[in-house]
Design brief:
One of its GO terms (molecular function) is N-acylneuraminate cytidylyltransferase activity. InterPro entries: CMP-NeuNAc_synthase, Cytidylyl_trans, Nucleotide-diphossugar_trans. This is N-acylneuraminate cytidylyltransferase. The chain is α/β, with parallel strands linked by helices. It has one domain (2-136, 174-228): Spore Coat Polysaccharide Biosynthesis Protein SpsA, Chain A, CATH 3.90.550.10. It has helices spanning 28-38, 52-60, 80-93, 114-126, 184-190, 214-228; strands at 2-7, 22-23, 26-27, 44-48, 101-104, 131-137, 146-149, 152-155, 173-183, 198-202. The strands form 3 sheets. A 6-stranded mixed β-sheet has the order 4-1-5-9-6-10, with helices on both faces. A two-stranded antiparallel ribbon has the order 2-3.
C-alpha cells in the first residue's frame, strides 16, 4: 500500500499556525491534502499532527487523522524519521495495514500537484530506487557562494574549476521539500528517509515555493492567481 504522510505540527516559529494559515481561499494544508487525494497512485492520505484544530481542518478537507501525534514528536527537535516511524507503526499495529511505500508530503509546499506526486512515484518504482527527493534548480549556484574566514572572503566550494560565465556552470539543484519517497524497509532497517540509490524528481521553481514567511505566502498567492488566470 502506498501511503502519503503529511506531517503538520501545531507550533511554528516563522509564521504562527503556519500549517492552517489562509492562502487565498483555504488553509495551507488543504492544498497538499487535495493534491494527494487527487493522486492516482496514493492509497491513503494520513495527516500526522499533535494539534486538534489542524486535525479537524485536515478531516474537513478529506484526509484521515487516525491518531494525535505524541507531544514529544511535535517539538522543534523532533526528527522527521521518528514522526514517520510513529505513523507507520500506528497504521500497521492499530489499523492492520500493510505499508509498502511512503510518500512524505510537507504541507508547506502548496503548489506541488497531483501530477508531480504520481510522476515522482512512477519514477521511484521504474528506477528501482531506494529513495527519491524532489528538487528545483538552485537559485544561487554553489560556485558563486562565498564565506568569510578571519575577515577574508573565500570560495565556499573549494578545489573546483574556475567558471567565469553562468552558461558554463554545471547544473545545480536544491531540495525543495515538496516530495520524499522511500520504502518501509529503509526507514526501519537504516533509520533513514534517504538511501544509497537516491534519485531526484526535478520540479520548476514556480511549483517549488516552500512557505516559511509572509513573503513566501505572498509569492504562492501570486503564482496561484497566475495558474487560475487571474
Amino acid at each position: 500500500m502506498n501511503i502519503s504522510i503529511i506531517p503538520a505540527r501545531g507550533g511554528s516559529k516563522g509564521l504562527k499556525r503556519k500549517n492552517i494559515i489562509n492562502l487565498k481561499d483555504k488553509p495551507l494544508i488543504a492544498y497538499t491534502i487535495e493534491a494527494a487525494l487527487q493522486s492516482k497512485i496514493i492509497d491513503k492520505v494520513i495527516v500526522s499532527t499533535d494539534d486538534e484544530e489542524i486535525a479537524n481542518v485536515a478531516k474537513k478537507h478529506g484526509a484521515e487523522v487516525p491518531f494525535i501525534r505524541p507531544k514529544e514528536l511535535a517539538t522543534d527537535t523532533a526528527s522527521s524519521i521518528d514522526v514517520v516511524k510513529h505513523a507507520i507503526s500506528f497504521l500497521e499495529v492499530e489499523m492492520g495495514l500493510e505499508v509498502d511505500c511512503i510518500v512524505l508530503l510537507q504541507p508547506t509546499s502548496p503548489l506541488r500537484t497531483s501530477s508531480d506526486i504520481d510522476t515522482a512515484v512512477e519514477s521511484f518504482f521504474a528506477n528501482k530506487a531506494t529513495s527519491l527527493q524532489s528538487v528545483s534548480p538552485a537559485t544561487v549556484h554553489p560556485y558563486w557562494i562565498k564565506t568569510v574566514i578571519n575577515g577574508e572572503l573565500i570560495d565556499l566550494v573549494k578545489d573546483t574549476p574556475k567558471y567565469t560565465r553562468r552558461q558554463d556552470l554545471p547544473e545545480a539543484y536544491q531540495l525543495n521539500g515538496a516530495i520524499y519517497i522511500c520504502k518501509r524497509e529503509l526507514i526501519f532497517k537504516e533509520n533513514s528517509l534517504v538511501g544509497s540509490n537516491n534519485i531526484p524528481y526535478i520540479m520548476p521553481a514556480d511549483r517549488s515555493v516552500d512557505i516559511d514567511n509572509k513573503t513566501d505566502l505572498k509569492l504562492a498567492e501570486f503564482l496561484i492567481n497566475e495558474r487560475l488566470g487571474y
